[in-house]
Amino acid sequence: MLQMEITNISEGLVTDTAMNDKSTSSEFVETFWMRFHTYMVHVVFGIILGFVGNGTVILIFLRHRNMRSIPNIYIFSLALGDLLAIISCIPFILHAYTYVSWPWGEFIYKICETCKELSIGVSVFTLTALSVERYYAIVHPMNQKMSTKRFAIRMALAIWVISIALAIPAGVFSKCEQFFITVEDPLYICFPFPSREHAKFVITLRLLIYYLIPIVMIGFYYSLMARHLVLSTGRFPQQHGQGQLTQMLTRKKVAVMALAFVIIFMICFFPMRISMLWFFYNPDWAVDYSVFWYYFHIIGFHMGYFYFCVNPIALYFTKSYRKYFNYYLFRCSYGTLDKSDLIQTRHC
User: Fold this and answer.
1) Which residues make Cβ contacts (< 8 Å) with residue 337, sequence separation at least 6?
2) Contact 294, 2 (CB under 8 A)
3) Residue 270 to residues 46, 159, 276: CA-CA distances in angstroms?
4) Is this prediction's pTM over 0.85?
5) Looking at beta carbons, which pairs linking 207-210 to residues 24 or more positions away fall under 8 Å?
């Protein structure tokens, strides 16, 4: 069963070598208990933290006018993308990764692959746009075009359109095939790529579009922000009023929050990207496959889906969101909600 463990449902990958495994269907059923860590992690993080957390972020944005700031427009879009991945992917992937065989049919698999790529695209492009917006808010605060909610909404919509266009090929090329381990027990295996060469091209392209290029752009804008903040720190008390100084500090806090999102994204998707590159670019992967790569793959698989659940946790540590999370999740608050919200706050 070791070779079967290379199955990467997070990318829809099953190898030809695995197809030569002569294990019986009963052995596949037994792996349900052997893979306790795979489905429990998804239940805890995906269904509980991810669904509740992102759902609360969306609720906060929709119900409270004072939370509809320019950065929060991007955060709202980010939460929508994460919630889409949790609803459309995790329940089906959970079953498939546990039982190996895919029972939902080819159409559902195409939907899962498309939604997964769509969610990743929305996340990385939104983080990039949020970084650019923070740069202009801090370095060029008088730029009227970048500092309007209308522009932020248009940018968020454009990100969704672009992400949908980039995700469509994932659904087009995905397919499911039927194999027979025994005459009575068919095994349905899904493939996201028509060939290994096509897989190399797509994985390399995704690495550039969804990971390396955005990270370089984000790093560039944050380096400019950091330089500006360092040079201007000593000038603010003398050249600016207290109101402008407070505004700048608020913008700085939002920039730090956005940077935290970026770091979380980089860490969560790094193992998965490396695992896929190693497999497809290593012709001797079956020989080199070891316990290390097995656990590296498992960790990367979990971290990739954990990302869709972790942003609300990061938001909870910001003062502006914490009181709303406390109210909606625990019906208590360390402080009162804004009067404009017209909600009576209950205290612990």
Assistant:
1) 323, 324, 327, 343, 345
2) yes
3) 19, 22, 10
4) no
5) 207/273, 207/277, 209/166, 210/120, 210/121, 210/124, 210/269
